[in-house]
Specification:
single chain; alpha+beta; disordered N terminus
Length: 357
């Protein structure tokens, strides 16, 4: 078990050196930053290492909207309101889903270090209380440093019924169901909702301005912030910001993006829709946990996935998609495509010293 005083002394020392750390980060190459971000779990890292592994979770726009508070035998995960995206996520749905994704990673990392967490949601935060246990290393833990949301064209091949069963088990949770869609007609119908949602968003100046603030066009920009949407991580070239920003309206077009989404979904083996019993923060956290398990299971099976959440992010389309899927009073929370695809450059994460408060 990690010594609490030693750990917190290390955190305090590191926090005091943040200006130096920021300069050092700026001096790193992108490849060096990736290696540091996605390094394997270090047993000697204790609670700080559990936090680091939690931050490797999927999250909206790679905003990393979380703050961690470390106690003697606990870790709390709360929203970082400074990293909200009010245009795309006005009710913080994606924020709490992101916290749930982090909590799922935390669970696997803690078990690997001999700590069994009990999770509860209260006061808009996730509290993980730890007790000593035998160390457990699962295939999902091993998948954490390899997981990525792969925004690329896949190979179009179907997945087996056995793999779909694995997805169904991983993607279900407390108060959360997963719908797996592999019928090409149904996938095309959901694609129409995705395209309509993307069209609506790209015509919304507030949405576009918000999205641009999280775009990182060059390796230097990505390493300087250690967050956001790096162009190469979505299959686009890296360019200096001074050149990329003026060119953006000419290359990032409504028609081009809609064509890309159609091609990407058509190339996928299927779609996964996550549906919670209730539309509230506690259930959004559970959606995040189920989504992260699904993502890790896909990674462990050698498959890729990517979010196509536009129908969830436009309220009218969310209700329409719910009606198409015959969900009754429930609403869809996430839409994900999956299949076999290429490896793309990984995104980055802020260091532990910047997320622990």
């Amino acid at each position: 078990m990690v010594d609490r005083r030693s750990f917190m002394a290390g955190v305090a020392s590191a926090a005091a050196m943040r200006p130096q750390a920021s300069r050092a980060a700026a001096a790193m190459t992108y490849e060096e930053a990736v290696r540091a971000t996605w390094a394997p779990l270090r047993a000697e890292g204790g609670l700080g290492e559990i936090v680091r592994y939690a931050t490797l979770a999927a999250n909206s726009h790679n905003t990393q909207p979380w703050r961690f508070t470390v106690g003697p035998r606990s870790i709390a995960i709360a929203p970082d309101v400074s990293r909200r995206c009010p245009a795309v996520d006005p009710n913080d749905h994606h924020v709490f889903v992101s916290l749930g994704c982090a909590a799922e990673n935390l669970t696997h990392a803690a078990l690997a270090l001999g700590l069994r967490p009990t999770l509860r949601f209260e006061a808009n935060a996730i509290m993980a209380d730890f007790e000593n246990a035998s160390a457990e290393r699962s295939p999902l833990l091993a998948a954490i440093p390899h997981r990525q949301s792969t925004r690329a064209v896949y190979d179009g091949k179907p997945v087996s019924t056995d793999l779909l069963r694995e997805f169904g088990r991983a993607g279900s949770g407390e108060g959360v169901a997963i719908l797996l869609i592999t019928d090409r007609g149904q996938m095309a119908a959901v694609t129409d909702y995705v395209v309509e949602g993307n069209t609506t968003q790209m015509r919304d100046a507030r949405f576009m301005d918000e999205l641009k603030t999280w775009m990182r066009f060059s390796e230097r920009e990505a390493v300087a912030t250690m967050d956001g949407l790096f162009s190469r991580a979505s299959g686009n070239p890296a360019l200096p910001g001074w050149l990329a920003r003026p060119l953006l309206p000419f290359v990032f077009t409504e028609r081009g993006e809609n064509d890309k989404y159609r091609a990407c979904i058509e190339s996928s083996a299927g779609l996964a829709v996550f549906v919670a019993e209730h539309d509230d923060a506690a259930h959004w956290v559970e959606v995040g946990r189920a989504c992260q398990r699904f993502a890790l299971q896909a990674t462990a099976l050698g498959l890729k996935y990517a979010f196509v959440n536009q129908p969830v992010e436009v309220p009218q389309l969310r209700r329409q998609l719910a009606a198409y899927l015959d969900l009754g009073s429930r609403l869809p929370d996430l839409v994900i495509r999956f299949g076999a695809g290429p490896e793309l450059p990984k995104s980055l994460r802020r260091p532990v010293t910047q997320v622990i408060v």
